[in-house]
């Protein structure tokens, strides 16, 4: 591998379409967004530029469990994903790191095996897996895989707060299992029939069930009366609200004007135009001598 460099890019995941506990599983489904965390490995001076303690914990665990050593390797991690907003920044970092280690050391672990390892570090989003995957984010179980949500335009609104996802799920207690069983069953049916309108309804229902307070949530949802606006979802453990639309039918400038008319106090301090992406994880080998 002399002279080679491995690069792994992992997309953010924007909030949750649905999330809850049906009494058997802590279930979650989300979708990819065109913001990325990138992990690179190459031979050279031993150097580890990792984001946060969890990445270092994962690296140490992989070295111990699989007998690998990163001596003589340069590991770097860069991310453009907002932190603490419910966009799976930590899950993207950890997913990129474990995929990079799996590729570099030829460990031959499946994505399912790697996902299980990640949930031992922290509750994990499905960045590692194919879109659209329904998961148990606490136990690392895969509950279903469906055709991906169509790639569409997003207007992502961020509140000026940060959330510790791990602490959030340690405190969160679900009680109404029957309601969540219905939500889960309805979501699976909507995914199987590729009913985006129904998925949008269930994402809104899940947002309300979460108990997380987002300013003007109902007003934003009512934008569905405008042609080209499809729905919204929130980060149940973050501060992100994502609006789904078709920019060719409803231009972004027009949607931003509607948002500003609702959010006159500018409680959402950052507005980001993005797109849903279904490309998943991108793995690329190159030559650093080129």
Q: Quick check: average pLDDT?
A: 93
- Major sheet: 9 strands, mixed
Q: Please tally the helical runs, counting DSSP H or I stretches of 4 or more residues.
A: 8
| Total strand segments | 13
Q: What is the N-to-C order of secondary-structure elements (H for helix, E for strand)?
A: EEEEEHEHHEEEHHHHEEHEE
First-last Cα distance? 14 Å
**What is the name of the CATH architecture?**
2-Layer Sandwich
Return the CATH class. Alpha Beta
What proportion of the residues is helical, as a percent range? Answer: 25-40%
- Quickly give the structural class: alpha+beta
Total domain modules = 1
Radius of gyration: 19 Å
CATH topology: Ribosomal Protein S5, domain 2
**Uncertain segments of ≥5 residues (pLDDT<50)?**
none
Q: Strand content of the residues, in percent?
A: 25-35%
Global morphology: globular
Describe the structure.
The protein is α+β, with helices and mostly antiparallel strands and 290 residues long. The chain has one domain (4-287): Ribosomal Protein S5, domain 2 (2-Layer Sandwich). It is 33% helix and 29% strand. It has helices at 52-66, 89-104, 111-121, 165-171, 177-192, 196-210, 217-221, 252-262; strands at 4-13, 18-21, 26-29, 32-43, 47-49, 73-79, 133-136, 141-145, 153-159, 229-234, 240-245, 268-277, 282-287. The strands form two sheets. Strands 1, 4, 5, 6, 9, 10, 11, 12 and 13 form a nine-stranded mixed β-sheet that branches. A hairpin with a 5-residue loop joins strand 10 (229-234) and strand 11. Helix 2 (89-104) packs across helix 3 (111-121) and helix 5 (177-192) packs antiparallel against helix 6 (196-210).
């Amino acid at each position: 591998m002399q002279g080679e460099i491995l690069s792994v890019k992992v997309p953010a995941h924007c909030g949750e379409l649905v999330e809850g506990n049906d009494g058997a599983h802590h279930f979650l489904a989300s979708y990819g967004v065109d913001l990325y965390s990138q992990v690179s490995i190459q031979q050279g001076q031993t150097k580890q530029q990792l984001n946060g303690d969890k990445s270092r914990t994962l690296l140490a665990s992989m070295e111990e469990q699989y007998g690998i050593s990163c001596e003589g390797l340069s590991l770097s991690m860069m991310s453009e994903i907002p932190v603490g907003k419910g966009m799976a920044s930590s899950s993207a970092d950890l997913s990129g790191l474990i995929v990079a280690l799996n590729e570099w050391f030829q460990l031959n672990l499946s994505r399912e095996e790697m996902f299980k390892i990640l949930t031992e570090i922290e509750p994990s989003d499905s960045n590692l897996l194919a879109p659209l995957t329904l998961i148990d984010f606490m136990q690392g179980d895969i509950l279903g895989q469906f055709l991906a949500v169509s790639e569409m335009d997003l207007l992502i609104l961020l509140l000026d707060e940060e959330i510790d996802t791990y602490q959030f799920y340690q405190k969160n207690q679900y009680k109404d299992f029957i309601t969540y069983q219905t939500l889960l069953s309805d979501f699976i049916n909507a995914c199987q029939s590729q009913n985006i309108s129904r998925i949008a309804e269930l994402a809104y229902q899940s947002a309300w069930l979460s108990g997380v307070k987002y300013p003007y949530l109902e007003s934003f949802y009512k934008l569905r009366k405008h042609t080209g606006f499809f729905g919204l979802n929130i980060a149940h453990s973050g501060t992100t609200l994502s609006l789904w639309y078709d920019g060719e039918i409803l231009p972004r400038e027009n949607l931003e004007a509607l948002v500003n008319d609702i959010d006159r106090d500018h409680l959402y301090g950052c507005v980001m135009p993005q797109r849903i992406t279904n490309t998943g994880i991108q793995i690329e080998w190159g030559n650093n001598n080129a």
